[in-house]
TrEMBL record, chain A:
It comes from the Bacteria. This is Protein serine/threonine phosphatase. Pfam families: SpoIIE (PF07228). Keywords: Hydrolase. Residues 41-259 form the PPM-type phosphatase domain. Signal peptide: none annotated. The lineage of its organism: Bacteria, Bacillati, Bacillota, Bacilli, Bacillales. GO terms for molecular function: phosphatase activity.
Amino acid sequence: MFRREMLFETKTDYANKTLEREIKLARNIQMELLNGSQPTLEKGQVTGYSLPARLIGGDYYDFHVLPNGKLRIIIGDVMGKGIPAAMLMILTRGAFRSAAESTQGPSETLTAMNKALYSDLRTLNSFVTVLCADWNPETNVLSYASAGHNLPLVVKSNQDIEEVPKVKGVMLGGLPQNTYKENFVQLLDEQLVFFYTDGITEAQNSDGDMFQTERLRKVLQQNYAEAVEDIENSVIESLDNFTENVQQKDDITMVLLKVHQGQTKVSSYNSPVLN
Amino acid sequence: MVLKFSINEMDSRGVVNLVGDLDIEATEMINDDLIPCLLEFQIIQLNFEHVPFVDSSGMGLLLNIVKRLKEQNIEVTISDVKEEVYEVFDLLQIPEIVGEETFV
C-alpha cells in the first residue's frame, strides 16, 4: 500500500512538473514573439508592452514596416484567458503577418484576417478584437480600422487629449465575409498616439474600482513630453500604484507612437527589398 | 461584482436574470452552468437590467449564449440593457451579429 501511494505521488509530481515546465516554455515563446525587435524610426518613436494577467495571455500587438515606408500597427485582445487565449493569439499573429504582406490598408487587413480566422474562431467559440492602423511618416496621416476594439487616444499637448474619430467594426469571428470601414486622423509633430487593450482601463484595485480612461488620460498628459519608453513606464507605474499589486483579471497591453519634427523615415528590421 | 444568475420558469419560457459584471471571470459559469440549464427551454429572455458592465470577453460570452441557443432552435431575446452597456454593444455591432430583433 505504502509503495503504491509513493508511486502515485511520484507520477503526480512528475506530471505537475512537466506541466509547469511546458507552461513556462509556452510563456517564453509568447513573450519572445510579443516582445521581439521593434522598428527604429528616424525622428519618431514606437514601443509596445504586454503583461499577461496569468502566466500567459491573449493580448497581442505587432508592427510591420510596409514596402511603401508606412508603419502598420496592430493591437488585439483574444476572448478568454490563459492557455486557450494564448493559442488563439498565435493564430491571430499568423493571420496578421500574412495579411499585412498582401493588403493595402487597415480595413483590407482586417477583412483578410477575418476571412482567415472566421472558421477557426467559430469552431472554437471565440472572438478577437483588434485595431489596425497605418502611419504614413511622409504625411503624418494615421489611418485605422477597428474590429470591435477600443480606439486609440491622441495626446496633442499636456492639456489636450482626445480619442480618434469613431469607426465601427465587428470583432473578428463575428460575421463571415465582413468588410471594415476605415477612418483617419492627421497627426502633427510631437503628438503621441496611445493604443491599448481594455485590461488597462478595467484594471481594478482592492475596492473593485477600475482605473478607467480618466486616470489613463491624466497620466498620458502629465508625461506627454517624455520619450515613449518613459511614458510607457509611467503608465505601468500608475497602474501599479492604483491596483496595489491586486491580481488582475485581464491582460494589459499598450503601443505608443510618437511623431517628431522634421523628416521622418522608418528604418525597417524586416522590410522587404524593393527593386 | 461577480456575475450571478437566476431563472424564472414559465412553462417553456425561461427568464434569466443576470446580476453583476459580464466579464472574463464569468467564463466558466456561463459555459458550464448557465448554458446547459437553458437548453431545456423553447424561449429564453436574457434580462440585462442588473448588468452594469460588459468587457470584450463578456461580449464573446453573450454571442456564444445566443449562438448555442439558436443552434437548438431556442428563441432568444435580450432585454433591459443599460444605455451605457448598449453603447458598447453598438460599437461592436453586436445587434448586427445576433440580429436586431434579438434586442427588445
